[in-house]
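Two quick folds needed for the group meeting slides. Do the first one here.
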Amino acid sequence: RTLDLQGGGAELTNALLDVGEPPVWAEESGNPHLMGGWAPVQCELSLKGLRIRGRIPEHLHGSIYLRNGPNPALEPYSLSMYHAFDGHGMIHSISFPRKDSSSSGAGYDRRYVRTRGLSRELEVGQSLFTGMRDMLPKFPLFFEHMWDKVAGCQ
C-alpha cells in the first residue's frame, strides 16, 4: 500500500490511522512481546512526500535509516508463548532527499523479510511454526523447522 501525503484530507487521515493500529489479537493477548512498543503493524506500507519540519542536517541528505523488528505478519502459533524473536521480521526505512533533488519530502517504507516460511504461512493464512519459548518439547525438530522458516530468503 502506497500513500502520497501531498494531497492530505480526511481520506488520508483515516488511512494513516488504519495502518497504524495493531491487530486485535495482539492487544487482547496479554503478552508483553505483542503490546506497547512491541505491538505489530499489520501491513507493508510506503509513504512518500513526508513534510520535514526544520532542516535536514547536511550529513543526512541522500541517506537512509534502516531498522529491523520482529513484527509477526499473522497471529502467532501460540499467543501466550510468543517471544519477540519469533516474528517474521520487518524492515523499516526512512529516506531523506538528496540536497540537489527536486523532492523536498522524506519517505517511509516498511516491508516484511520474504522468507520461505513466511510465504508458506501467507499461502495457508495462519502461522505454522512454534517459537523460541515453545521449542524444548520439540527440540529434535527445532533446527529442521528453523531451517524451513528462514532458509532461502528472497
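Then this one, please, same format:
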Amino acid sequence: NGQILVDGQPACTGFPSSMDVAGVATLRYDNQGTVVDAAQAHLDKHIVHLDLPLDTHMEVMRWANHINVRITMTPRVGGQSGDCGTFDGNPDDDTTGNAVYGSECLFHHMTPVRPGPEHDIEECIHNDATKYHMA
C-alpha cells in the first residue's frame, strides 16, 4: 500500500517528514537528492533517507512501479564483506546474490516480492508517444 513502515508501524506519514529511531536510525522523507537513474530525473522525487550506524546512508527512491536504492558508506577498518562486495577496490573478488538472515537482518518484517509484468520499448513506440519520456 506504499506506506513507510518501521518495525511494522507507519512512519514518516507526511511529505516531507522525518523521525528518529532512537539509537538505530534517522529517517527523512522528502524530495531532496539525486536520482540513481537519470531517466527519472524529470519525475517528482519521493526519497526516503536513512542515516544508519557505522556512517552508512541509504536512499530509497520510491516510484510508481519500482524503487531504486543507493547505499553509501565508509570502508570498515579490517575489511568487510557483503552483497555489494568487499570494498577493496577489486571487483573480481566481489560477490552478488547473497542474503542476510536471522538476527543480522536490518529489516524485521520480510515482505514477499512477486514478479510483475515485463515491458519493452516496443510498447512505448506503439502507444501514445506523448505519455513517455525517453532520456
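Slide caption for protein two: The beta strands are 5-6, 9-10, 17-21, 25-30, 47-52, 56-62, 67-72.
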